[in-house]
Amino acid sequence: MTQRPILIAPSLLAADFSRLGQEASAVAAAGADWLHLDVMDGHFVPNISFGPAIIKAIRKHCALPFDVHLMIEPADPYLAAFADAGADHISVHVEAGPHLHRSLQTINGLGKVAGVAINPATPVDSIASVLDMIGCVIVMTVNPGFGGQSFIASQLPRIAAIRQMINQSGRDIRITIDGGITPETAPRAIEAGADVLVAGTSVYAKQNYAAAIEALRPATDA
Ligand code: DX5
Ligand code: ZN
């Protein structure tokens, strides 16, 4: 399967929250491609993380593209705040509201790359009608809400189905895989068609971030 270079997006959720600015700049220096920012509201998911004010503060410390993953319901009232905070990509969950198309319209209208995220039990067809509005799809390989969970391997054929759907559409859309990515699971996700790897624990729990990031890249991309 022909693919572009694989991008590595460390998730700040697994960083030291007392030093977020330094933690963001450290992965940039260590060779990360994007910074993944997990926003959780204690309602759509059973955990609370951080919001636009924190992202705005981190923005000054890190020039990487900010890949903002909203696990909040509703999302629409906050989209402008995340754009103002410095998000480059804003992804909303298919399951987080009845008006996915409106959310994506709003994100595009704010001049940001729109993305959709889908939970492990959500049909892949749920994104078929919005492919013309998005630049990325986040396929969850854990149930959202927490870092450090185990990779759900049953998502692999779903990644392949989404890759096929995207190829047939002829559109330039990345597939981001999110949850339980390690040097062991990453090649399986890439083989299925993913081209962005979110990695929280497998980067930030390590002493050497550069080595941890390199360990996730396919040898040909290193
Ligand atoms: C989970 C988040 C993930 C999480 C991944 O809801 O969307 O981005 O940080 O963490 P790890 O890589 O530890 O599974
Ligand atoms: Zn995420």
Description:
- This protein is an alpha/beta fold.
- The protein has one domain (7-216): Aldolase class I (TIM Barrel, Alpha-Beta Barrel), CATH 3.20.20.
- It is 31% helix and 18% strand.
- The protein has 8 helices and 8 strands; from the N terminus they run βαβαβαβαββαβαβαα.
- The chain has an 8-stranded parallel beta sheet with strand order 1-8-7-6-5-4-3-2.
- Helix 5 (156-169) packs parallel to helix 6.
- The longest helix is centred in the C-terminal third of the chain and has 14 residues, at 156-169.
- The model has no long low-confidence stretch (mean pLDDT 97).
- Zinc ion binds next to strand 2.
Low-confidence stretches: none
What is the CATH C level class, in words? Alpha Beta
**What share of the residues does DSSP label as strand, in percent?**
15-25%
Distance between the termini: 18 Å
Looking at CATH, the homologous superfamily is Aldolase class I
Q: Overall mean pLDDT score?
A: 97
> What radius of gyration results from the CA coordinates?
16 Å
Number of helices: 8
Number of domains: 1
Helix content, binned percent: 25-40%
Please provide the ordered H/E string of secondary-structure elements.
Answer: EHEHEHEHEEHEHEHH
Helix-and-strand structural type:
alpha/beta
The multimeric state of the shown protein is single chain
Quick one: overall form? globular
Instruction: Look up the CATH topology.
Output: TIM Barrel
Could you describe the largest sheet, including whether it forms a barrel? 8 strands, parallel
Strand order of the largest sheet: 1-8-7-6-5-4-3-2
- Which small-molecule ligands are present, each listed once? D-xylitol-5-phosphate, zinc ion
